[in-house]
């Protein structure tokens, strides 16, 4: 047998663009001009940088750029290169493109290491071929890629959940570990929060509830928490729990514990990627993204302090890719009409794609399709993860993907109808906590925008592509229909949105369907519409997000903070936290500044040795500054429960009740949308109508309490009270006499029942066992029997007509607040709402204190 020739021994070229011409199996004569510019700039100015971000917008051919750099470095420098994709489906797609279009030899090293072919492993280890894998192929405790020289991260804007997942321990509700931790934490949580944690939800808003154990409390409980997880972390029964806990154990002081309605999440603020040798020790890491961002988000996502950026050629990044016809049915149609329209459009299009943020929404869409489109096949994300061919081959198919807004593309004729139902906003409990509890949405502006761009672009991947995008879900419609928000998109997308909004207002379902039909036919009618969009692009200008400069300055220090605290260098971590605070000056960062004051205080407290030393004093000062920076955040005001010495430093708002009421009110308003007040007015009208009638009065009370931000309910069982409104620590329960009149004499039996209602509430309502509940009699009656008097001494009195007048006033105040509501997490609005609720007597404290005792307000007769 003759010796093998060294087929890889060829003369290296000066840059990856020139390298492409040496690939004899390529299907293209040369790279495109913008690719050539990027590749040459990389070779001349960025080849020796440790961390590089390449801006490669959709349609720019980023896969070829990344693979060419990898193959060029493999040949020129002998690099062992690995190209990472978010999903197995994208790995397959990338491998096929490399082999059959670009003529680049690669090996697929995704999935189980045990199934890797020996030859493929050898090709990577010897540097003969570039490896293509998923993020999880590198980011795990025992990766096959132990010491790669070059790592290319595709779709880096989507990397956070994939990278951070390695250091994120999610403990699902209902598991034995979740039950054990819930029991352990019981005495440290408010009763209502513990009920939400264990699944006894008080209202629908609890489905999105999120809370955070304070860091000082986690420090106190670290040993107990670790012992519980140790007892459940068995490699044979739950390997994922075992390996993730092996990374987090001993580092709880560098992590945060989030409590949600569906899971407990333990994770660091920023993934400590410097501790993962295969990633940290690579000679170069290249992050390819459609947008580079200006606020340091890429550094936070990847845990790298400084990333050099190579932008797309001038003008290229401002162009759109393909054409999207946006449709907003909820601007003209009811929910049922919207569902009917979607189904009709799905039937007309043949193949369609639905993206939703949750499994629950995906199941609801699946049920609708299976009920009304019986001969259509439904595909979920698992069905098309490895191969989308069965979906594309079908003429009657609906792909319904939950929490997957990137990674699977359907260009060309593969899919012309994309339905996006819900905003891909917070993708984990940490993001949801920082946005909703801390009011720091500004931190995630770029990330949210990128997710939306990815979601609406799943079917437009090249200039010739086009798709209709049916937008539903209150928050997503609010975002895309509000030019204050989408002014940060590029001009072409703004033009598409404007056109879609104009076509969706004051129209019928039939009109929307006719426009969709013209879009599918792609005749002269749609050509005219497309011309209108193109002609309007020049009238739009893209605006930068606020506070980007401040966020960019602190990003390297945030990464350094995480590294220091992970390595138990608390002094260094405190110094980094203080440096961060010197740069967070923009008014939109009040909530984020409050978070960092809190983190600085937590570290100082960790360094203190007594309640009176300098670090303890510093900690209390930082906590006080935290609450001063964002006084309308209830979570910060509750710190005094876990940190001694804060009781007298509660700041501007000591009333946690009204702070939590405003947060709940905010969630109510979010469900109604910010584009208009139609849903609010419908609810307000219904409440007023129900309160005006005796037989519906109690239903109106429950609806009004919910609208006010209370946990409201009713129970028709024997001896149960009438409606109740509950807050954090206090509540009221009603005995309603809406069917009485002024001449009715209130008897002892009813009085005794009213006085006993608080006991019933504490015994029967989840999370209310420790609440201070006051009974209130809502009645037109002005007279009570002498036998009732002793029982009415602790029962408030609310004359019925006065209650109805108060309810009308309450709705008017809420209408005013709804009219100024700008969206989630606006701390200025929260401050104003707190003051308004207090001054107008709409807080639970005011409702309780403003009621006279019935024994004194009513005339007592024998």
Automatic annotation (TrEMBL):
Transmembrane segments: none annotated. InterPro entries: ATP-dep_Helicase_C (IPR006555), DEAD/DEAH_box_helicase_dom (IPR011545), Helicase_ATP-bd (IPR014001), Helicase_Restrict-Modif_Enz (IPR050742), P-loop_NTPase (IPR027417). The keyword Nucleotide-binding applies. GO terms for biological process: nucleobase-containing compound metabolic process. The keyword DNA repair does not apply. It comes from the Bacteria. GO terms for cellular component: cytosol. SMART domains: DEXDc, HELICc2. GO terms for molecular function: ATP binding; helicase activity; hydrolase activity, acting on acid anhydrides, in phosphorus-containing anhydrides; nucleic acid binding. Pfam families: DEAD (PF00270), Helicase_C_2 (PF13307). Residues 43-310 form the Helicase ATP-binding domain. Keywords: ATP-binding, Helicase, Hydrolase, Nucleotide-binding. This is Putative helicase. It comes from Octadecabacter antarcticus 307.
